[in-house]
Design goal:
about 500 residues, alpha+beta, eight-stranded antiparallel beta barrel, 15 helices, 22 strands, about 25% strand, globular
């Protein structure tokens, strides 16, 4: 009788295993088919998608090419940029220092980094380590610091003190990259080694992430990396310049591969454990995914219109929302023609990651939600690609209408108030540095910090419009202002004022 029971149990186990295997194969085919169609519609050159379920890699596939000219195929060792999904890695690194007792999440930042300073003295004094990860320090976004300048981490952090306070400490939410650079400096100060060396030693090496680079520019010596692209409204699919800014590396500069990310996702699904090695203590791992900032029901992602969450929060390097009655932690990454998305649903033991080399290829959202549906809920009821594609095609149409209206509202037959030579000179902003303006033929050349130069043609009145940025492919407006003496005294660019240096100032 006992042998019959054992035989029955064995048969049931084998049957269940075969059933699960068949279901997994079916899910893989469905996800793959959606990705293939999505790549075609979004015109994505190269992409990789990885799904981990119950600690096992159940889907890992690469698509397309690294470069449209060479036609080299993307493979599992091809380097993509993690962009802002880097933030979660840095939070994990800080958690390791908490585990060692070298600091606490509620420690004051100035106690570990005395030169840390914000525009508001109270916020400076009371900012805590965990606040560096939660985007709620009350300071406005200052990404122009690294977009139009390239300087040291220390100088970037120093200049951030000039970013204006826009809401009370922990009284709002403004996405903030610079604070992650500060977190990297804290890791260095406490551990005694640069943040990039710390994450390599404590995270990449134990996880077998042998190709992963914490310094983005190192991909060029590592080889086998993708080229970034952007789908320009006027020029179609174009290659854009690499825009790695390692002075804010902890905010989004780690580069990794489909193979390495598979190990990282396995570590996440296993709650901080990899191959029986506990890298992060359970209490700390749980803390990383607790809600720390509150965004309300609207959140910041347009896809909320499709998922309709009841709440949106932010953990330490993770956006969070309810999805089908369960908590979903996720984060996108976007950097000059390279994108990523990471998602994990802990109580379903499912994690998803997507890389692509096309600027804002929002197919990534469709892949994440489709994978969660298939592997977490065994649900194939929604056509996520069509829904997401339609949503963003609507946004593209709206944006084109805005640009069209901008052109229509341009004042015709105007000219600058003064000869172009009168606009020449150096203009300074205490946070964003110096722009040198020179007149060339019928246009102005504007050199920002010897880092990026725009040619600006007359738009109307005293406003000029730049050529397309080689990374963003955007035309930007530069508006000059006259003082009461009828002389140019400042220019406005990206919402910031640069004041002209006069001979008296010299």
């Amino acid at each position: 009788m006992r042998n019959k029971i054992y035989s029955l149990l064995f048969f049931l186990t084998i049957s269940l295993s075969q059933s699960l295997s068949a279901q997994q194969k079916t899910n893989n085919k469905k996800l793959d088919a959606m990705i293939v169609q999505g790549i075609k519609d979004w015109k994505v050159p190269g992409l990789a998608a990885i799904v981990v379920k119950d600690g096992e890699v159940v889907f890992r596939k690469t698509y397309g090419v690294k470069n449209l000219e060479t036609k080299e195929k993307v493979d599992e060792n091809t380097l993509f940029n993690m962009a802002s999904t880097t933030k979660a890695v840095v939070a994990i690194a800080m958690g390791m220092l908490v585990d060692e007792g070298k600091l606490n999440w509620d420690d004051k930042v100035v106690d570990h980094l005395p030169y840390f300073k914000l525009s508001d003295p109270y916020s400076t004094a009371d900012a805590r380590i965990k606040d560096l990860f939660t985007h709620n320090l009350g300071v406005g976004n200052a990404d122009a610091l690294w977009i139009i300048d390239s300087t040291s981490v220390r100088e970037t952090v120093r200049k951030f003190q000039f970013a204006k306070k826009t809401y009370p400490l922990r009284g709002g939410f403004t996405y903030q990259n610079i604070m992650y650079a500060v977190a990297g400096e804290v890791i260095a100060a406490v551990s005694g080694k640069p943040w990039n060396e710390f994450v390599k030693e404590r995270i990449f090496n134990p996880l077998g992430m042998t190709r992963t680079q914490a310094i983005a520019k190192d991909i060029f010596s590592a080889g086998n990396y993708v080229t970034p692209y952007l789908n320009d409204a006027e020029d179609g699919l174009v290659e854009v310049d690499y825009g790695f800014s390692d002075q804010i590396g902890p905010a989004g500069m780690i580069c990794s591969t489909p193979h390495d990310i598979s190990n990282y996702l396995t570590f996440l699904v296993n709650d901080g454990i990899y191959k029986s090695d506990t890298l992060v203590k359970p209490k700390t791992f749980k803390y990383l995914f607790e809600p720390h900032s509150f965004l309300g029901s609207s959140g910041i992602y347009p896809t909320n219109a499709l998922t309709k969450p009841n709440w949106n929060t932010y953990g330490l390097g993770w956006f969070q929302q309810d999805y089908k009655g369960h908590k979903l932690d996720f984060h996108t990454g976007s950097l000059f023609g390279l994108v990523a998305i990471a998602g994990i649903m802990h109580d379903k033991n499912v994690a998803v990651y997507v890389f692509a080399n096309l600027d804002h290829a929002e197919l990534r959202h469709a892949i994440m939600y489709k994978a969660m549906d298939l592997y977490g809920f065994n649900d194939d009821s929604r056509d996520w690609h069509t829904e997401v594609f339609t949503l963003y095609e609507g946004f593209k149409k709206e944006n084109n209408e805005v640009l069209k209206k901008k052109v229509e509202e341009r004042a015709e037959n105007t000219k600058p108030s003064l000869p172009l030579e009168a606009y020449e000179g150096s203009y300074v902003n205490e946070m964003l540095g110096t722009v040198v303006v020179t007149a060339q033929d019928d246009a102005l050349q504007t050199n920002f910090n010897d880092f990026i130069t725009y040619d600006a043609e007359h738009w109307h009145y005293d406003t000029f419009i730049t050529n397309k940025d080689p990374r963003f492919r955007e035309k930007l407006l530069i508006r000059f202002e006259l003082n009461t003496d009828g002389k140019i005294n400042q220019l406005d660019f990206m919402g910031e004022v640069f004041t002209k240096i006069t001979q008296e100032d010299d």
